[in-house]
Amino acid sequence: MRLQALNLSLHTCQPRCPVRLSSEEVEHVALLARLGLTEEERQRFTEQLNSILSHFQALSELDTSQIPPTSHVVEVANVFRPDQVGPSLTPEQALAGAPDRGDDTFRVPRVVE
Amino acid sequence: MAKALYELTAHELSPLLASRRVSSREVTAAVLARIAEVEPALHSFISLTPELAQQQAAQVDERRASGEEMHPLAGIPIALKDILCTQGVTTTCGSRMLEQWRPPYDATTIAWMKQAGLVFVGKTNMDEFAMGSSTENSAFGPTRNPWDLDRVPGGSSGGSTAAAAADCCILAIGTDTGGSVRQPAAFCGVVGMKPTYGRVSRYGLVAFASSLDQIGPITKDVTDCALLLGLIAGPDPLDTTCIDRPVPDYVAALQAQVRGLRIGVPPEFFEYEGVRVDEPVAAAVWEAVRLLEGLGATCAEVSMPHLRHIIPTYYLIAPAEASSNLARYDGVAYGYRTGQPVTDIVDMYRKTRDEGFGPEVKRRIMLGTYALSAGYYDAYYQKAQQVRTLVRRDFERAFANCDVLITPTSPTPAFRLGEKVDDPLQMYLSDVCTIPVNLAGLPAISLPAGRQEGLPLGLQIIGKPFAEETLLRVAYTYQQATSWHQRRAAPVTETPGRTLVVQPQ
């Protein structure tokens, strides 16, 4: 597959898809995602996300108003098991990978002033 | 021609081990020596576990010597993608975020392999959190393709497929969310299968996109694929999405018989956005179809019109699910935490995640978060889920009149390292033939089926839900009539000199 063909489709796509994520919107999404981006990353992601999303505008051509969404391909719901106690991790095992811990706790920076 | 022990398949080794003509210690030593020889050039492993392997091999040999009846795969060395939790052995997912993480439990597939007596030689390289198509997104450096060291092995399970292709293991395991077993299997000239969604337990598989992820075998031929699938398939009370359905005898399905088989060939798999798959790729697929027709199968073209929307559909759904799944990496319970001073907990989260994740993972978290955010959910995420329904219906219609679909696995053979790293959309396009299968939850297998400029090409066979036996039968028939799977990569001699992390016990 060749680069030129895709770029062409991106250009032909642009007039009818006015998606334009601003750098501020990208910063807002980064906050929602709890990602602290550097200025350079924010600029690069703004450019790349705009390119990807404008390509993805092709989906809006399709009328899907009568189509139910698929979230999962298997029809399973509410799988139950008997309510019996089984083996589980000890506090020591659960805490073994913690970056910072107290005696029996995960330690984090202050949450409430 | 005499073959080295490491060149053999599991089904060739199994009777030798069972009759004790060869010990697991000998096979394991041969594989470890082979790894030491070629690994500096390939970098197919993130970590090696030679002491664990020797210990497991010795145990199998002892149990056999005492007359114990063992699983057919007992004593066989296997390479594990570094996304499956292995108790006490680091499981990095190719990420700085989990560089030091030792899981406190085994994945179900790992536990079952341990019970069966498989020998774990190491954890293989991968794109970070399985996001990528070239293994270049690993935080620990790329893997190289054994057929051409300047090319990628494919991804995200590129470490496992390169290891299998270079005889650095007898069997390997990968995971497939959008083609991550099949596309690298095609690029490396080995067999890779994505089983039906729900066929194999995912307990202890680090989640990427939960409605798409599936664990699958990577092997040197179809018989080994059947053996390994038989071991890892089946219901698991620890995974509620794993279907409670008996596991057939997959080895019994290996019959060279396709009389009356109805093959569908969808033209949409040969052209996307006006760009055709490489001519030798198309020729290899048609040659395989003609061969099967010659053995009694019939072939018809089937149309799947919604595949023209497959890339946006997948690259909205998978990142949306990933943005939610990867929220757990917050520097609290396990994994990396920033060493910088922080002002509050949100600042800690943001610094930790910015430092711990690589660019592709961040890009997908951003894309997924945006697609799920207020005001855009309907236009992006819900829209993609509706198109997913249309894609499923296309498959249902196709399978009303045929038993299997035959397509290319990827539009091109392996591309060069660095060729697509700066262009995410171009990289995404190399999955165009494999992602429809994940969106529909179907089983599919990729087989080596030709050459283009000396590089392996892959053939994909797609089946109905839980029709793994049909796939194995068709694939076996093809391999009985061809020899692509018997050809190995030219021996790797160049050694640029890399260091490797060896697990302390």
Describe the structure.
The complex is a heterodimer of chains A (113) and B (505). Helix content of chain A is 39%, strand content 0%. The model of chain A is unreliable at 1-17 (pLDDT under 50). Chain A is mostly helical. The N and C termini of chain A lie far apart (56 Å). Chain B is of the alpha/beta class. Chain B has a single domain (5-264, 401-502), classed as Amidase signature (AS) domain (Amidase signature (AS) enzymes, Alpha-Beta Complex). Chain B has helices at residues 10-18, 24-42, 50-65, 108-116, 158-165, 182-188, 222-232, 279-294, 310-325, 345-356, 359-372, 378-401, 424-429, 435-440, 468-481, and strands at 45-48, 77-81, 119-124, 171-175, 191-194, 215-219, 262-265, 271-272, 275-276, 298-301, 404-408, 444-452, 455-463, 501-502. In chain B, strands 10-7-11-13-12-5-6-4-2-3-1-14 form a twelve-stranded mixed beta sheet, sandwiched between helices. Chain B has a two-stranded antiparallel ribbon with strand order 8-9. In chain B, helix 5 packs parallel to helix 6. The two termini of chain B are 38 Å apart. At the A-B interface, helix 1, helix 2 and helix 3 of A face helix 9, helix 10, helix 11, helix 12 and helix 13 of B.
